[in-house]
Request: fold
Amino acid sequence: MAHRHPLRRGRSAGGRCGRRPGDRRVTPRAPAAASGRLTTPGPGARSSTTTGPVRTCVGCRGTGSRQALLRVVVDPGANVLVVDVARRMPGRGAWLHPDPHCLELAVRRRAFGRALRTAAAPDAGAVARHLETLAEPHAAGTVPAAADRR
Ligand SMILES: [Zn+2]
Reply:
């Protein structure tokens, strides 16, 4: 009896039994590795920061929450940009980080004209002044002023 068993297993059943449990063990690992891939790149980090509607800055094209970005509208009569501090003004609005760099980028690209559908590039002087007043109390420039202004 003892001599026959090893021979039979080795020829017929041994080969099949060895592979099947191996396949079952591999399959649960594969989905775990796939889900690990999905969570590692950027989208996972974004979802954690988005608390509300996300706006795109017309300057740097980066995104931010409504609270983080300034809303800018145009005065159609004068073709002048106006900062919509309360974010309640009617009409089209462009969103901009309260950052002079973003303003400069937006002006260079004429992004305001495109976003607000104006024929000519609107004057951004008021927005620049607004950013200056935001920056002055925080001379160090470490923290965006939006946190203090509610
Ligand atoms: Zn920006």
Summary: Strands lie at 54-56, 63-65, 70-75, 80-83, 94-96. Residues 4-39 form the longest helix (36 residues). Residues 30-47 have pLDDT under 50 and may be disordered.
